[in-house]
Every structure is written in C-alpha cells, then in structure tokens.
Model the fold of this input.
Amino acid sequence: MKKAFVSLCTCLVFQTANSQNISKATITTLPFSLMTIISISNEAFENHFKKEKKSYEINKANYKKLEELLHDSKTNSLTNVDVRGELLIAFDKNIIKKIFFDRFGHFYDGTKYFINKGLFDFILKKAG
Done:
C-alpha cells in the first residue's frame, strides 16, 4: 500500500511538473574523469566539489526539446548513481525538478532511477 501511495504521489508530481512550462533550466556538472574512492551521492554532489563544478544555462529555444526528452525515460533496476551532474528545471508556479546523472547516462530524480539516451545526449551537447 505504501509503495502504491508513493508511486501515485510521484506520478502526480511528475504530471503537475509536466503540465507547466519550463521557466529556467540549468545543467551543473563535474568532470566525468574525476576519480573518487566512493560513489558520489546526490547530497554529496550538492554540498561538495564547489571548485570542480561548472554550470550551463539551457537556452529558452531548447525548452520544448527538453520537455519532449523528459517524456522518453525508461525506469531501470539501479539502486545507486555515481553522480557527476544535475539537471535543475524550474517550472511555472515554483515547481522545481532535480535530476541527477552519472557519466553513463543513468538518472535519478529523487524517486526513481531511469535511463534516457536522448536526454543524456542533450546534456552532453549542452555541457560538453
């Protein structure tokens, strides 16, 4: 029952975010070549590596493409992502979506792990 409730809440948040227009989108990355002893969690990514991070704002002309790519995700069975970047999307009405990714195109949005080759290619093109 709890899992169904969480899934329902996730679905409602995703649907709410997707029914809004993107007002700002930013990619923040670490070098993919950065070697660490342990995997970098999303919390560690947000709180550390300040000098190594680089941010790239996505041009408004690319928002429609980004919205299309967000719909093309496939969930997978991962339980961990060695975070090397974050896609931060602000929607109208102050809804913010954070999507973390690793160097191989695995993503974590705070509720589920997924893959999305098109989204990863988009990120590499904009932040590369």
In short: The first strand starts at residue 22 and ends at 29. Residues 58 and 126 are 7 Å apart (CA to CA). The first helix runs from residue 2 to 18. Confidence is low (pLDDT under 50) at residues 1-17.
